[in-house]
Every structure is written in structure tokens, then in C-alpha cells.
Amino acid sequence: MSSAPHVPGVEVRGEWRDGYEQVLTTESLELIARLHREFEPRRQERLRARQERLRDLAAGGTLGFLPETAHIRADDSWRVADPAPGLVDRRVEMTGPTDRKMTINALNSGARCWLADQEDANSPLWENVVNGPLNLMDSIDGTLQFTSPEGKEYRVRDDVQLPTIIVRPRGWHLPEKHITVDGEQTSGSLVDFALYLASCGRKQVDRGQGPYFYLPKMESHLEARLWNDVFVLAQEHLGIPRGTIRATCLIETYPAAFEMEEILFELREHSAGLNAGRWDYMFSVIKTFRTRGGDFTLPDRNSVTMTVPFMRAYTELLVRTCHKRGAHAIGGMSAFIPSKDPAKNEFAFNKITEDKTREANDGFDGSWVAHPGMVATAMDVFDKVLGDKPNQLDKKREDVRVAAEQLLDVRSTPGEVTEAGLRANVSVGIQYLESWLRGQGAAGINGLMEDAATAEISRSQVWQWLHNDVQLSNGETVTRELVERLTDEEMQAIEQARGEAFASGRWDDARALFLETAVADEYQDFLTLPAYERMP
Ligand SMILES: CC(=O)SCCNC(=O)CCNC(=O)[C@H](O)C(C)(C)COP(=O)(O)OP(=O)(O)OC[C@H]1O[C@@H](n2cnc3c(N)ncnc32)[C@H](O)[C@@H]1OP(=O)(O)O
Ligand SMILES: O=CC(=O)O
Ligand SMILES: [Mg+2]
């Protein structure tokens, strides 16, 4: 049995298993230590800045384009780096967790890129943190195999074009408690980043591509600057040419929507574009102005479509901003997944087609699908719009003009707050949390893909409706008693639906966590923070 290598100041506190030595190497742990020592104070500073901004907003402030960076927006001369190998044609990107089976299924999906997710679709169980990069390493080495408990054999095909791998590390807010440096918990972002970079970075360069990343949940261009500085130091540390790393930033927080251009600017030598992360964006809209009542209260989650005014303003601005700077604009995730029921399946595929058609016509260069069964449908849509072109960076969208007021226009969102919407939030929130606590960060619930971002919407809507005394369409006011009663009823329904399997689930924990984050007066910034404390 191997054990963790000795690196001064570094302690691996997570359970050690055979094979981990391939990823938890001296080199990767030294990189984590160097990044931690160099950047942890700045990470903490940026997290404090988030809190300060939230306090200002709660006190009546608002969001707007920053006066201090107006010169960056006004300067037409700068562009991001030219697209890197493997990132020129990104018309369809698969997303999903990095367990062995799903890694193989994603690689065989026919998509152009694969977002290998250590974030929204992953729950940071220690074994997921280590196995993710381990599986990616095996896939690059061509040794990845899997046999299911039923005996089904999985292999990466050699007759399809493999997607370009883009790894999404955790956001800046999440700690990693299983690796400490000088006695301190490390950053989940830096651990995910360093484990992949150290184990796969050079291999990706050798096969003509590079270590590519998706960067989630950033709230300001100064957080992007922090990532850029991390990239510069890590490339130098590992002896990889500067600019080899490429990163696509998710614009998925309300404050970041006002700093798209600055985020591209900060990362320009490493930038691979922006992505419209619609689910976290919706969560962030609720969270940012959660105490400000009617003007920022959204109706039922399923009424907030991509065509409501404030969402439309956000995606239009994203395409225009990217193409002005030579950067790819990547669309988001429609939550519909295939169903065994033919009518529901047809509905889901129609929804995907509609969503991807709107994005392709708007100028996005590609978009996400959550399930391999949907790759061909999305490909068909983008093929029709792109034709032989690898992207549509030439579609400048200079017709688009988006003012701050349009991004902030939540009030014009049509729809109601209904008891069914409240029940759905409670039920989905609890079911997702139960799955997350067991180490599964994405789940299909009621025909929809649910992950950390969609669960954040569910619990934050309940919090917002409750703490703003919102009236349901049936005239009833949302109170703590009502939410608790519906929670009891929904728990009974879940127990009935799950049958015998219910007994082995972590339902008490999931229910308690949901109520702690959806009902308690003190709003938790991220559901995953208290959830992580309940994780071994
Ligand atoms: C807000 C955001 O950040 S969106 C991006 C993050 N979220 C995600 O990436 C979610 C990705 N999607 C998923 O994880 C899955 O599709 C789920 C959990 C929603 C549904 O998965 P399942 O219940 O397994 O669906 P289903 O039974 O239809 O799957 C059929 C096959 O496709 C595979 N599959 C489904 N989704 C994926 C995926 N995203 N990646 C790889 N394989 C997949 C399944 O493993 C299964 O394989 P098998 O037939 O070999 O056993
Ligand atoms: O990460 C994507 C999102 O929609 O959230
Ligand atoms: Mg997200």
C-alpha cells in the first residue's frame, strides 16, 4: 500500500487508497503548497470583498458598469489570445461528472468539447476530488476502462473524434479540508486546478492541446486577475510555456454580468471566452437582492425562461462582448434530459432544439448539453447555423445595446409564485441534497437535470419568498409554518416514491440542511458550505 509523499508543510488528511499516488504526487502537492502560500491571503481578501458588496446592496446600493474600468471598455485595441488547438470549434460541449463510467460516456459522445466537472455536477467527496483527475489522466493515457456491477464493459472508442477536455474546478468560496498547508485548509479551486494541471498538463501539451479550464462563480474582474496570476505562477513552476493554459469564464453571477469585458481583459493571454451559466446566474440574481422585496422577487423557477427580459439582456450582452474581443461565446444548459416516456421525451427534445436554435441564431459559438443523447440534436442545430465555419466570431452583434437597467429589470419577468412552485422547490432541493451528501453531484429529478446551481435556486427562492412575505397565487402568504408543513408532505411523497431504497438514504440530513438554508433567518451564501461540513 502506497502513502502520501512527504512535502514539508503539506498534510493529506483524506483516506489514502491505492492509485492515489498517481495524482497526489510530490509535484502536485508542492504546487498546491506554493499556490496556497502565495494566493490564500488574496483569496480571502476577494471573499471579504464579496461580503462588503452584498452588505452595500442590502443597504440599498445597486449594480452597474464600473467607472474605474471605463478605459478598458472604451479601448477598442485589445483582443484575447487566438483560440488554442482543440478550442476553435466548440459547437457542442458535453458536461458532466468525472467518474469512470461517465468519463468514458462523455468521451464517446461525439461532442467537440467535454466539460469535466469538479463543480456544479460534482459533490466534493474526497474520493471524487482525487478520482476525477485520476480518470482524466487515464483517459489521456488511453488506459481508462470500466466494468459496471452488471458486467457491462466500457472503453473509450478509437473511431470517434474525442472531445477536447476542459476541467471545471470548484469556485473560490469552497475549501478543501482533506489537504492542509501549514495547518490551514486549502482552496478547493486551487486543489482541483493543481491536481489536474500537475498530472495532465504536460500530457495535454504533448498531444497538441493544453490544460484547459472553465472558471465558475466569479464575482469580479479582480477574481479573474487572481486566476490569471495563478496561471502565470503555475506555468512557470511546472515549466509549461506561458499562455498554454486557457480558461473560459462562466458569467454566472449578477455582479460579473457588469464586468464581462474586464474579466476577458484580465485573462486575455489565457482566455478562451465566456459562458452564459444561466442557472447560477438566476441563483445569484435572487441571492444578490434577496432582501429587497418586489422589484427583485422572481416567480416560480420554471417561469424564468431564457427569453424573459433580464435573461435576454444578459445573453445578448455576453455574445456582443465576446465577439468584440475575439473570444468564444458559449451557451448554457437546458435542463431537459431524455425520458423513457415517449411524450415527455419528445417534449424534452423540442425544448433542447428551441433553446439551442435561439443560442445559435443569437451568435453563440457553441453550447452545452447535459446528456450524450442530446449531442446529435444540438450538433444539428449548430451545423445548420455555422455551416462550414468553426465558429461565428465574425458575427459582431453590434446591433446589441444593453444598459444596466435592462440587466436589472427583474420586475418585468412574467409569472406567478404558486404553491406548486414552492412544493417543487422543497422537494427538488431535498432530493438533490440527499444525492449530494452521498457523493453524487448531479441527478435527474422529474425529467430535469438538477445540480448544485439549480438546487441553489430552489432553496434561495424559498428563502426569498419567506423573508419577503410573498403571497402565493392562491392568496396564502409564505410563512415558516407553511414551508415546514409542505416539507413534511413532500418528504412523505418522496418516501412513498422511493420505496425500500428510502431507508438507506441520508434523508434526515438532507431535510435539516434544506431547512437550514431555505428557512433560517441567516442566509447561507452557498448551500454547499454547510453541506460540506456534513461530509466526512
Ligand atoms: C448548471 C450547470 O452547471 S449544468 C452543468 C453541470 N451539470 C451537469 O453536467 C449534469 C450532467 N448530466 C448528468 O449528470 C446526467 O445526465 C443526469 C445525472 C442528469 C442523468 O443521468 P442518468 O440518470 O444516468 O441518465 P440516463 O439513465 O438517461 O443515462 C443514460 C446513459 O447516459 C449516461 N450519461 C447521462 N448523462 C451523462 C453525462 N452528462 N456524461 C456522461 N454520461 C452521461 C449515463 O451514465 C448512462 O450511461 P449507461 O447507459 O452506460 O449506464
Ligand atoms: O454552470 C452553469 C450554470 O448554469 O450554473
Ligand atoms: Mg454554475
Automatic annotation (TrEMBL):
<dbReference type="InterPro" id="IPR011076">
    <property type="entry name" value="Malate_synth_sf"/>
</dbReference>
<comment type="similarity">
    <text>Belongs to the malate synthase family.</text>
</comment>
<feature type="domain" description="Malate synthase N-terminal">
    <location>
        <begin position="9"/>
        <end position="71"/>
    </location>
</feature>
<feature type="domain" description="Malate synthase C-terminal">
    <location>
        <begin position="417"/>
        <end position="534"/>
    </location>
</feature>
<dbReference type="Pfam" id="PF20656">
    <property type="entry name" value="MS_N"/>
</dbReference>
<comment type="pathway">
    <text>Carbohydrate metabolism; glyoxylate cycle; (S)-malate from isocitrate: step 2/2.</text>
</comment>
<dbReference type="GO" id="GO:0006099">
    <property type="term" value="P:tricarboxylic acid cycle"/>
</dbReference>
<dbReference type="Pfam" id="PF20659">
    <property type="entry name" value="MS_C"/>
</dbReference>
<dbReference type="GO" id="GO:0004474">
    <property type="term" value="F:malate synthase activity"/>
</dbReference>
<dbReference type="InterPro" id="IPR044856">
    <property type="entry name" value="Malate_synth_C_sf"/>
</dbReference>
<dbReference type="InterPro" id="IPR019830">
    <property type="entry name" value="Malate_synthase_CS"/>
</dbReference>
<keyword id="KW-0808">Transferase</keyword>
<feature type="domain" description="Malate synthase TIM barrel">
    <location>
        <begin position="164"/>
        <end position="409"/>
    </location>
</feature>
<feature type="active site" description="Proton acceptor">
    <location>
        <position position="168"/>
    </location>
</feature>
<dbReference type="InterPro" id="IPR048355">
    <property type="entry name" value="MS_C"/>
</dbReference>
<dbReference type="InterPro" id="IPR046363">
    <property type="entry name" value="MS_N_TIM-barrel_dom"/>
</dbReference>
<dbReference type="InterPro" id="IPR006252">
    <property type="entry name" value="Malate_synthA"/>
</dbReference>
<protein>
    <recommendedName>
        <fullName>Malate synthase</fullName>
        <ecNumber>2.3.3.9</ecNumber>
    </recommendedName>
</protein>
<dbReference type="GO" id="GO:0005737">
    <property type="term" value="C:cytoplasm"/>
</dbReference>
<feature type="active site" description="Proton donor">
    <location>
        <position position="451"/>
    </location>
</feature>
<keyword id="KW-0329">Glyoxylate bypass</keyword>
<dbReference type="InterPro" id="IPR048356">
    <property type="entry name" value="MS_N"/>
</dbReference>
<dbReference type="InterPro" id="IPR001465">
    <property type="entry name" value="Malate_synthase_TIM"/>
</dbReference>
<keyword id="KW-0816">Tricarboxylic acid cycle</keyword>
<dbReference type="GO" id="GO:0006097">
    <property type="term" value="P:glyoxylate cycle"/>
</dbReference>
<dbReference type="Pfam" id="PF01274">
    <property type="entry name" value="MS_TIM-barrel"/>
</dbReference>
